[in-house]
Amino acid sequence: MTKLPTYNRRKFIATGATAGATSLLAPNVFANTGDPANKVAINVSAFRTQHWQDFFSSTQGGAILVDLKAFALHYWNSDQTVYRLYPIAIPLKEEFVRRGRTTVTHKIDGPSWTATQNMIKRDPTIPRHIGPGPENPLGTHALYLGWPLYRIHGNNDSRKIGRTSSSGCIGLFNEDIKELFGLVESGCKVHMI
User: Which of 57, 171, 176, 185 is most buried (most C-beta within 10 Å)?
Assistant: First the structure.
């Protein structure tokens, strides 16, 4: 059996997104199996870039597209000179999902986390409140949205990224939310699909 090539998915995605790729960010890569007629397709990443025009009338003030199906968050700045694509964690259940349009109302560096009543009902043993720090489920930074209790935030458990794992919020790697936090201004448009 031929050994297939390995890829650092996050580095590949970040590099491609930073370079402003405009088609599939990570198309199928074909591994040579030794037989030219028998190549094996490897899907390096399911992410693909999006065009802001398909979702927003403008990017004035910045625009964030959260694609729940693709586990991806897209960001464009006002003049489209900055485009970022990040892998995300999404809500555990469809009933926790919120779709539609809102805005970033404010940003917090070092947020505190408080369990909701529904979280406590599901698990009475969870802590009621966790302040800023490494145990905080919101990670290092949070973007608060116009919808109560919904945020785009970091994560204290990187294994959750790329999975259904939240109670409604959108989670990013801490290094990704730190970068996005620095780019996004209050009032940035958010569209969750």
Answer: 171
